[in-house]
Amino acid sequence: MCGITGIFNLERIAPINGALLKHMNRVQSHRGPDDEGYYIDECVGLGHRRLSIIDLSTGQQPIFNEDQSVCVVFNGEIYNFESLVAELSHLGHRFKTHSDTEVIVHAWEQWGVQSIERFRGMFAFALWDKNKRQLLLARDRLGKKPLYYTQTNTGQLIFGSELKVLLAHPEVDKTLRSEMAEEYFMYGYIPDPYSAYKHIYKLNAGHFMLLKPGGKAEQTPYWDLVSPETCHSTDEVQTELIERLSEAVRIRMLSDVPLGAFLSGGVDSSAITAIMAKLQDTPVNTCAIGFSESDYDESEYAHQIAHRYQTNHVSKIVSANDYQLIDKLSTIYDEPFADSSALPTFQVCQLARQNVKVALSGDGGDELFAGYRRQRMHIAEQRFRDKIPYHIRKPVFSSLASVYPKADWAPKSLRAKTTLQSLAMDAIEAYANTMSKLRSGQRQQLFSRNYLRNLDGYTGLEIMKKHANAAPTDDPLKQIQYLDIKTWLPGDILTKVDRASMANSLEVRSPLLDHVFFEWAFSIQSSENIKGTEGKYAFKKALEPYVDHNILYRPKMGFSIPIADWFRGPLQHNLNSTILSDNVLDSGFFSAKTLKHLINEHISGRSNHADALWCLLMFAKFMNRQ
């Protein structure tokens, strides 16, 4: 796990500024505190920060082929590198290290761009072929590792693992992208391929760019989920899932440094811990954080799994009212990011790093096996939508939704406004409505008239519709799972974990996101993923011999923090001074009247606007740094 940096002369021949490259690279020293390395020629400059995990003695980057004509800087892990080394060695390639990185340069020599499809792992890398004068930038299939890029007015392509790397270059255009506020307050993050900045982009998951001097920076896809030819039943899942998942876990346990697992006490982390315990003779190193407030604490379930598998368990009880990290979080993510669980995620990464350098996680289970309540609700609503024609549903349920009060304070069963809104929509619009941090009507009230006029009808829904049009299936559940995999997974979950872990110089590996396992699991029948009100049904059934029943079938909890109480107590002044700062009020995005109304209503206790205010706080902290 590392960080990469690059400057490429896309439109001109000019010397690469080595001092600037080094400055940019060192901005992300947290991603690789162990070492740094550089390569510069007349066309390209590459920088690398290393977090040493495999081949500690000879794995320094950049890494070259035999005649030094191919060079790579790499962030991530290639888990099948040993089999690729054997294949490439048989074909005549000579390896001088035991690093997984070296396999990339020889695979490029042998197979060219098609080599990307042979890599099983998480990665973002930049490969320069001096003889062909080609630069290859590539990102893994599901977007576990980030890569940002931009083009300067002087014709240079600048790229790096984090936004802050690009922003350290004086010629990078830092103009904000006007649509980003609409997208952020819908999604809670800025979805790929966009960023907060008009001319800075993210390389999409499962895409590459092959660049030449004088060429264009265009993204090309190399992977996507396809419609499964066969769908697996519960019986097939139970006999095959553990075997397949065990392989995905096993290849992620290769490490030359201490390795462990996150153990939250949920289904997915418990499954990973159980399989790790099955695969190794020594106790698994596990870690968990618990909260002193019982409403937010699930550490007892983590202790239950730790006891069952006799792990070396480290647990730390923190206060759910520990809000001191908020300012740090707002800088870690470089652009507005509204997932409040980033705070406890940072804390558990901080704890893990005290004992291990690599941790396995359960990320991806809810997206892959339909574990979110919103997915079950969508399917239930879709059955209803299918029974009533759209031209009847739309006016009836739109009218009902308009008069039904917004009741965030009420039990979930009584929060019908969103459901009524969704019943008036088509399937994709309805799921986007359910997913939204702030619904369309709320965003309309939040934004200024001038900003809405400038948007000219544009909404973040267009991104969701684009992905829906590319979905490989019309199965209602798999279609929204596909939407989650293309938006929520890379934009929220994987971004959250990457930045929180790398800020602590910790590598996190996700067996459930192994693309081979992922493709197989995506073919499980939807009726086996959701049975009645139970999500992840087939997955849980397969895990029954390994994970306690009360953990498998308890209500999903997740990392949550008491932000509603914070805003009425210790963060009240911070909330006012940050959201109502001159930078925010003068940005042109917001209605000042609405901002003040949201704050006053929440603080008074008349309404609960905690989610909206958290989004605003994170956005305002970003704006105040501009």
Task: Walk me through this protein's architecture.
The chain is built from 29 helices and 17 strands. The protein is of the alpha+beta class. The chain folds into three domains: 220 residues, Aminohydrolase, N-terminal nucleophile (Ntn) domain (Glutamine Phosphoribosylpyrophosphate, subunit 1, domain 1); 206 residues, HUPs (Rossmann fold), CATH 3.40.50.620; 65 residues, no CATH class. A six-stranded antiparallel sheet has the order 2-3-1-9-8-10. It has a six-stranded antiparallel sheet with strand order 4-5-6-7-11-12. β11 and β12 form a beta hairpin. α2 crosses α3.
SSE topology sketch:
Layout: E1 2-9, H1 18-26, E2 35-40, E3 44-50, E4 63-64, E5 70-78, H2 81-90, H3 102-111, E6 121-129, E7 134-139, E8 148-151, E9 156-160, H4 163-167, H5 180-187, E10 200-202, E11 207-211, E12 220-221, H6 234-250, E13 259-262, H7 267-279, E14 285-291, H8 299-308, E15 312-318, H9 326-332, H10 342-352, E16 358-360, H11 365-369, H12 373-387, H13 390-403, H14 417-423, H15 427-435, H16 440-446, H17 449-455, H18 461-470, H19 476-486, H20 488-502, E17 507-509, H21 515-521, H22 526-529, H23 537-543, H24 549-552, H25 563-568, H26 572-579, H27 582-585, H28 592-604, H29 610-623
Parallel strand pairs: 13-14, 13-16, 14-15, 16-17
Antiparallel strand pairs: 1-3, 1-9, 2-3, 4-5, 5-6, 6-7, 7-11, 8-9, 8-10, 11-12
Helix pairs in contact: 2-3, 6-7, 6-23, 10-20, 12-15, 12-19, 13-14, 14-15, 19-20, 26-28
